[in-house]
Amino acid sequence: MSVRNTLRAMPTLLRVGFAEAVAYRAEMLIWVLSTTMPLVNMVLWMAVARGAPVGRFGQADFVGYFLATFAVRQLTSSWAAWLINWEVRQGTLAMRLLRPISPLWAYAAENVAGFPMRLIVAVPVMVLSVVLVGDKALPQQAWQWAFFVLAVLGGWAISFLANVTIGALSFFLGSSQKVMEVWLVLYFVCSGYMYPVELLPPTLRTVIDWLPFRYQIGLPVELMTGAHGWREALWLLGAQWAWVALLGVLMVVVWKQGVKRFAAFGG
Question: For residues 159 and 73, is the Cβ–Cβ distance under 8 A?
Fold first, then answer.
């Protein structure tokens, strides 16, 4: 299918995806409740900072950081790996492959269509952060807002591309859910989800800068809370989108090779 026809089909895919997100809103609520770890970490780090700041973080800074982490997590998550694993195992992927549009576009549309439902959760949390922390809970300048939006899009792109790449490994492994679990462990440790990356020792922080996990959630949170000047923010955005490009190429290669091995029987 040509790019033009794919773009023409995209509004319909988005409408279908949004309808599914609304229909399965109870499932989304359960998923949101499973992502409240930043709120637990916020309380723990506030207790740590009660006597004295930790690095540049006082109690109010930890409130702003972890509320931003909770909100950004809602906007940058993807679940494509589990869906692909299930469809490959059940053989239902065959139905997607028969359609005149790549399943990759359909997976992307289903994820993007859920954004309005996620904003219903994320926006009140951001408002609460402003009430508790003040103006510094949000970007203060136009370029900071622009960089933040780009960082959220890049964070979502890394999550989605990694999900599809790992999901496509199920063509070779039967199931790649364990691989996804390993990715998630590294994500929790290295992304800034459990603690600000800048609190880590310099050597470990340098290693993390070369990995994709920080750019999934840590960078958008840092830009939202004004942790960087524009030069450093621009460099980090460049690194983030380099990972997007690299994972995009890897996803296409793994998917195309994997589909050649796919076979479904019965009906």
Answer: no
Q: Is the dihedral of CA 96, 161, 74, 187 positive or negative?
A: positive
- Amino acid identity, position 199: L
Report the alpha-carbon distance of residue 45 to residue 2 in Å, rounded.
51
Helix %, strand %, coil % of the chain (to 5): 80, 0, 20
Q: How far apart (Å, rounded) are the C-alpha atoms in residues 153 and 75?
A: 9
Give 196-200's long-range contacts (Cβ < 8 A, gap of 24+): 196/55, 196/57, 196/65, 196/222, 198/55, 198/56, 198/227, 199/54, 199/55, 199/57
- Nearest to 81, CA basis, from 168, 16, 184, 149: 168
d(CA 46, CA 105): 42
Q: What is the mean pLDDT of each run of 10 residues along the chain (267 residues)?
A: 76 84 75 81 92 90 93 90 93 88 91 86 88 86 94 96 96 92 94 92 93 95 91 95 97 95 72
Q: What CA–CA distances, in Å, run from 197 to 8, 45, 225? A: 41, 14, 14
Among 120, 121, 151, residue whose Cα is nearest residue 228:
151
Which residue's structure tokens are 């800048």?
A: 198
Q: Using an 8 Å Cβ cutoff, are 93 and 264 in contact?
A: yes
Sequential DSSP letters for 80-141? HHHHHHHHHHHSTHHHHHHSSS-HHHHHHHHHHHTHHHHHHHHHHHHHHHHHHH-GGGS--S
pTM of the model: 0.91
State the CB neighbour count (10 A cutoff) for residue 196: 22
Whether 62 and 117 have beta carbons less than 8 Å apart is answered as no
Residue 137 in contact with residue 64, Cβ under 8 Å?
yes
